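Worked example 2:
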Amino acid sequence: MTALFALATSLLWGLADFGGGLLTRRMPALTVVVASQAVAVVVLGAVVIATGGWSEAGPQLWYAVAAGAVGPVAMLCFYKALALGPMGVVSPLGSLGVVVPVSVGLLIGDRPGLLQFAGIGVAIAGVVLAGGPELRGAPVQRRSVVLTLVAAFGFGSVMALIAEASSTLTGLFLALFVQRVTNVVVGGGALYVSVKRGGRALPEDGGGMRVVWAALPALAFVGLADVAANGTYSIAAQLGPVTVAAVLANLYPVVTALAARGVLKERLRAVQAAGAGLALVGTVLLATG
C-alpha cells in the first residue's frame, strides 16, 4: 500500500506541476499560487466540518503551519522556473528535494534493504534523466536552475513536515486545511508586497480578472491535486518506510514530461525515454525489495 499511495502522489504532483507551469505563462506566479490554494482552503474547510476534523487539533498542527509557510516559497520558485523553462530542466531538478525526507527517514531509523537501496539510486537517476537535462548556459536557464533548487529543498521540507502533522485520516484533513490556510496567508502577503513594489497581480494582456475567472477550473485542479498529493504522501509515509515513500512520490517529473509530450507535443529525446525506463525499474525494485 505504501507504493500505491506514493505512486498516486507522483501522478497528482506531476499533473499539478504541469498545470501550474502552464498557468504561470498566462498570469503572475504568485497569483497562481494564492488562487489555487484559496480554492483548496474552501474545499478542505468543508471536508473538515463534515468529518469533525476540529476534534483532532493538537500541537502536531505546528508541523502543518511550518509546511504551509515553506510551501508558497517553494511553489513560487518552481512555477517561475517552469515559466522560464524548459520543463525538461526544471521538472527533474525539482525532484532532488527527495533528499530531505529520505535523510529524515534514515535518521529516524528506516533501514531499506539492499534491493531497495538499489531501487532508490536507479529511480532518482531515472527521474533526473526523464526530464531530458538541458543545462547549456543561457542566463535565463541558469536562473531557472537556481529557482528550481530552492524549490526542491522547500518541497522536500514540506514532505517531511506534513508527514508528521497527523496520525489519523480526519487529523490529516485538518492538517491539510491548516497548511493551506497558511499557504494563502503567506502567499497573499507576498502578493500584496509585490504589488506595492510595482509588481502585477493580474495578467498584462488586458484580460485582467476575466483571465483569472476563465482559468478558475484549472486553478482549482492545480490546488486540489496538490492537496491530494500531500494527503496520499502522508498516508504512504505512515504505512511504510519514509525512504521508499519519498522516492516513489518523487517520480512526478516523469508524469510532467509525459503530460508535456501529450499536450504540448514536446518530443521525448532518447535520454528522457531512458530515464523513464530507469524510473520504472527503480519503482519495481522499491516495491518488491
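The mean pLDDT is 79. Residues 169-196 form the longest helix (28 residues).
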